[in-house]
Design brief:
Elements lengths: L1 H19 L3 H14 L4 H13 L3 H11 L6 H14 L3 H14 L4 H11 L5 H14 L3 H17 L4 H14 L4 H13 L3 H10 L1
Helix pairs in contact: 1-2, 1-3, 2-3, 3-4, 4-5, 5-6, 6-7, 7-8, 8-9, 9-10, 10-11, 11-12
Length: 208
């Protein structure tokens, strides 16, 4: 098609500017024109991102991607737009939104899952963080990594959500993976005493 042919020609020009003339800024501008001509072309997206980062034009690159992401029709390409937008975002709240938009396209994307967790940690959205931790647990298979996620979830439920019973359930799952985890045992001990869960407390004491 005409847009695809125009984009292909502009990519050739951008590569010449970038590799032969060694002008990354001009190469980025030209790659951006290629992207505008055919937003669904992953080659144009890759060139624009590569030259934009090389030229140190992070803000301009973010603006270019934001202008074209909704013009792309292919889900896989839209996902890559969102991935780069999320990587470029410095504000944690906006980064969380960007990673979530990627997850709305591909709910099993591991980078997006980790990125969303990182963006939400330390923020005010405790419920969002809980949801992100549960999503990560649904994808993670490695026992050590699952244990770390369960420890984070239990701490969140206990300290920020005020969900003692939920934290107890999570800690039991954690102790199935790491029976001698002293921090988990101590937290479970405290929660059982606070909730007067004496039978479960006895189980905890036999582990210690």
């Amino acid at each position: 098609t005409a847009p695809a042919a125009r984009a292909a020609l502009l990519r050739q020009v951008a590569e010449r500017y970038g590799h032969q003339v060694r002008n990354a800024e001009l190469a980025f501008v030209t790659a951006g024109r290629a992207l505008a001509a055919d937003p669904d072309a992953p080659e144009s997206l890759a060139l624009a991102v590569g030259f934009g980062l090389q030229a140190g034009l992070g803000e301009e690159l973010s603006a270019l991607l934001a202008e074209n992401v909704d013009r792309a029709h292919e889900p896989a390409v839209r996902a890559e737009y969102q991935r780069h937008l999320a990587r470029l975002e410095q504000d944690p709240a906006r980064a969380a939104e960007a990673w979530q938009r990627l997850l709305d396209i591909d709910g099993e994307d591991r980078e997006a899952t980790a990125g969303l967790l990182g963006a939400l940690r330390g923020g005010a959205d405790a419920e969002g963080l809980e949801k992100a931790l549960r999503r990560a647990l649904a994808l993670e298979e490695a026992p050590a990594a699952r244990a770390r996620l369960l420890a984070d979830l239990a701490a969140l439920q206990d300290e920020r959500l005020g969900d003692g019973p939920g934290a107890v359930v999570t800690l039991k799952r954690l102790l199935e993976l790491a029976p001698s985890d002293r921090d988990a045992l101590a937290r479970l001990d405290r929660l059982c005493v606070a909730g007067e869960r004496w039978v479960e407390l006895g189980d905890v004491l036999t582990r210690e």
